[in-house]
Each structure stands twice: as C-alpha cells, then as structure tokens.
Write a structure and sequence with these properties.
By secondary structure, this protein is mostly beta strands. The protein has 2 domains: about 10-50; about 55-265, Lipocalin (Beta Barrel), CATH 2.40.128. Helices cover about 10% and strands about 50% of the residues. The chain contains 2 helices and 11 strands. The strands form 2 sheets. Strands 3, 4, 5, 6, 7, 8, 9, 10 and 11 form a 9-stranded antiparallel sheet that branches. A two-stranded antiparallel ribbon has the order 1-2. The longest helix has 25 residues, at about 25-50. It is elongated, with a radius of gyration of 32 Å. The protein starts with 7 loop residues before the first strand and ends with a strand. The relative contact order is 0.17. Mean pLDDT is about 80; it is low at about 1-25 and about 40-45.
Length: about 270
C-alpha cells in the first residue's frame, strides 16, 4: 500500500510528522469490511434474540392466573403502661413470629397506555402468624420472675381483592421490568376458628382489613405465554385486635398485619 508523507510547520519550527494515509482504494475496502461485519453481527444478534409475541403488549385486555408464597406477620404496638414495665399481672412480653404460606388467584389487566395498566387480582391467601408471650410462672417472685412461653397460633384465610397500577419499563428483547402499587381489601375467613388451634386463650380479630401495597417484578416473554416474577410488600392499615379485658389483649394497643409476597404470574 502506497503511503503519503505530510510535513507541516508549527511555531516557526519545521517538524516532520509522518502520518500514514491510505489511498482511496484501501479506504473503500476498509469501509466495506466494516459494513459487512456490522451487518453480520446484527444478523447474528437478531437470530439469537428472537422477539416472542411482539403484539402482546398491544392487547387492551388479557387474563391469567397467579401462584405464589407469602410471609405473614404482625406489627405490634405495645401498651407502654403495662408491657415491658413489670406492671402486667403475668404477661411480661409478646413478639410476633411470621410463617410462610401460599397464595393463588386470577389476573385481569386493562391496558391504559404503552407504559401503564390497571390490574385486578382476586384470590385467596393462606397463612399463619404466631404471637409468642413471655409469661411469669405462678409462684415466682415479681422482681425475680421465672418465665415460660405461650405460643398463640393465629391462622388466616384471606379473600384478597387487590387493585393495582402497573408501571412498565421499556421492553428489552424478551424482558420487561415493572413497578406496581395500589390498595388491597382482604376479608379473613378464619377469624372465628383460630381458637381451635390453641390450648389456652386466643385473641379475636376484625375480619376486614385494608392494605397498601408496592412492589416490582420482571415480565419474561416466552414462546407460548408470558411469565412474571413479582416481589410485593403489603402493609395493613386497620387495627385488627378486638379489645377484651384479658392480659393477652390489654398489653397490646394495636395489632396490624404485614406481608411479603412472592408471586409467579402466568398470562
């Protein structure tokens, strides 16, 4: 390949800077090779990343079903005049221990725009929470108490009716991230049966509760359907404890439900 030499002057001093400049024929060959490689890479990428069901997000309405698991717990608001002060007759402390449950339901989604949709996911949630009480044993001195534990099992079967907004990100190949947020109304069918699971006293709960929820997930566009993995936090707003004149209730001012839900949506 023939080369040309460029000599220029700078600051009244002559400096010989040798810049290798290919001729026009060689430059054209380089451009052709670059364009060929670019098209080959693009064709290979398109072959490897086939876009599944590209018309799916254009549907104004669609259905599906959901399966998942949940971790159910309480947030306890203690009565500061009794709990942890030694003034309670025999109950000196209470904690909430969560357990893992299951949830199932159906999905209905209404498209409101390219990046927004409304969702209604009625279903059932099965779970249990345990209230663990620290109780002073009978006959032990008040100022040097000896404790025993009483575990109160509080199970729940919720009829779940969440209304959520889904904020969708831009689709990348066959993946699409999203955020969800909204409210859920839940009715506990198991509030009148929980006493059967305990040997001693069991608290009573209000069956109706309202939750605010937020979470995130990823849509996976598969060949025949769309699969989404979703993580959602749910916080109850209602004090579900029905007040009674027993030491198990008087040591608690309020009891509110909390959940962490992992769902797999098939749409």
């Amino acid at each position: 390949m023939e080369l040309q030499v460029c000599i220029y002057a700078q600051n009244n001093n002559v400096n010989e800077n040798f810049i290798l400049l290919p001729k026009k024929e060689s430059l054209k060959q380089t451009v052709y090779i670059f364009l060929f490689l670019t098209m080959a890479v693009q064709g290979f990428a398109q072959h490897k990343k086939i876009m599944h069901d590209q018309e799916y997000d254009k549907k104004w309405f669609h259905l599906g079903f959901t399966l998942g698991t949940n971790y159910m717990n309480y947030r306890i608001f203690p009565d500061s005049t009794l709990l942890f002060t030694g003034l309670a007759d025999s109950v000196y402390g209470v904690e909430s221990h969560g357990t893992v449950g299951v949830n199932l339901g159906v999905i209905s989604e209404l498209r409101m725009g390219n990046y927004l949709s409304a969702r209604f996911l009625p279903g059932l949630i099965f779970g249990q929470r345990n209230l663990v009480y620290q109780i002073r044993k009978e006959g032990s001195p008040r100022f040097e108490p000896v404790f025993k534990e009483y575990t109160m099992k509080v199970s729940s079967i919720y009829i779940d009716a969440p209304i959520l907004l889904k904020f969708k990100g831009k689709r990348i190949n066959n993946y699409r991230p999203y955020l969800v947020g909204g409210m859920s109304f839940r009715y506990d069918l198991d509030t009148k049966r929980i006493g059967n699971d305990n040997d001693d006293y069991t608290i009573n709960q209000h069956p109706l509760d309202m939750f605010y929820e937020f979470g995130f997930g990823i849509d996976f566009f598969l060949v025949y359907f769309k699969l989404a993995t979703e993580f959602k936090f749910s916080f109850g707003t209602v004090n579900v404890l029905e007040p009674e004149q027993t030491e198990y209730c008087t040591v608690i001012d309020a009891l509110k439900s909390r959940m962490f839900i992992v769902s797999f949506h098939f749409e």
